[in-house]
Amino acid sequence: MTTARALFVPADSAGFYHCVSRCVRRAFLCGEDRYTGQSFEHRKDWLEQRLTELASIFAVALYGFAVMSNHVHVVLQVDPIAATHWTDAEVARRWCRLFPRRGPGGHDEAARIDHLQANPERLLVLRARLGNLSWFMRCLSEPIARRANIEDHCTGRFWEGRFKCQVLLDEPAVIAALAYVDLNPVRAGLADRLEHSRHTSIVRRLVELDAQPVQAGSKLQPLLGLSPSPVLSITTAQYIELVDCTGRQWHPGKRGVIAIDAPAALARLGLSADRWNLQVRAVGSTYWRAIGDSQALIDKATAIGQRWLKGVRFAIALELI
Q: Which CATH superfamily is domain 11-83+133-285 in?
């Protein structure tokens, strides 16, 4: 039975989420189609450019992403409260950027902004949409689908009907989801080093760190979008070290456990090496709609009127390690 997403994604409160959109009928979003030999690598740039644009429009903080051959991962914080502090003019400007008018008269953006400001009821709806996770994912997917269908000379669905969404209930869940997303190319055998994992957030962080080494000691911040006060306790350097160490354990020929000299970030997160390794692996399979420790999952189940959530038993076992 499908669970209403509104139970896990409250429209009026901030939260961290891991979202995945997949293509239908084995359609290729990017990469090279092994059956036809046709390359769609350029579509990865479409996704990155669109994510950059949307992060500057919506009330979100984008922490991580990975563009794969037939799906895309996004880790972000949605803050609808931030949108309530925008002026009416700001809301109108952001909406016009999101849906620019094309054709005759499309250049008259000032008149359109004025028209929206004169309609308080419409502005109320638009303000809510700019702080809404589903609208963010919709505005990410639809333009890509249209461009891909035009390029493929076809019509119909390009993405699955619903994107997968996991609410991240605590800091270890956020960090584990970020690491899981950033290591997708490594796990898929497409890269053997973090810096070779193109079209991922970890590459952007490495590039920014090379440009501004002083950022290594600062708290892990979003790549794009809102800049909330630090909510993650580990630094950028600790996160990169953690991802690199985790990735090396998943490389072919390794034993699949974190080395004895585990990164200092694990101690800060209150996790053992074995527990961390299992937690990251569980992001894509063991958990379902929510990720967190056992008490956070139990509290979330109670809040939405359910007796349990998938992953509670695993979380309890994980805490015993």
A: Transposase IS200-like (3.30.70.1290)
Range with lowest mean pLDDT among 59-63, 108-112, 121-125, 260-264: 260-264
Q: Which pair of tokens denotes residue 129?
A: 């949409």
What pTM was estimated for this model as a whole?
Answer: 0.86
Q: Which two tokens stand for residue 11?
A: 């429209």
Please state, in angstroms and rounded to a whole number, the distance separating the CA atoms of residues 144 and 71. 12
pLDDT per residue over 224-248, tens digit each?
998 876 678 888 888 988 888 888 7
pLDDT tens by residue, 180-203: 999 988 887 777 778 888 889 998
Confidence of residue 27 (pLDDT cuts 50, 70, 90): low
- Report the distance separating Cα 105 and Cα 15, nearest Å: 39
Q: In 3D, which of 161, 196, 166, 148 has the Cα closest to residue 28?
A: 148
Domain ranges of the chain: 11-83+133-285, 87-129
Looking at beta carbons, which pairs linking 5-11 to residues 24 or more positions away fall under 8 Å?
Answer: 5/134, 5/162, 5/165, 7/304, 7/305, 8/165, 8/167, 8/289, 8/290, 8/300, 8/304, 9/78, 9/133, 9/134, 9/165, 9/167, 11/80, 11/128, 11/132
DSSP for 88-117, please give it. Answer: HHHHHHHHHHHS---STTTT-HHHHHHHHH
CA 42, CA 148: separation in Å to the nearest integer?
11
Q: For the packed helices 273-282 and 312-319, what is the interaxial angle rounded to 10 degrees? A: 170
Which tokens in the block code for residue 183? 């290591």
314 membership: H or E segment, kind and range: helix 312-319
Strand (E) positions, the chain? 15-22, 60-67, 71-78, 164-168, 224-225, 290-291
φ, ψ at 61 (rounded to 5°): -120, 115
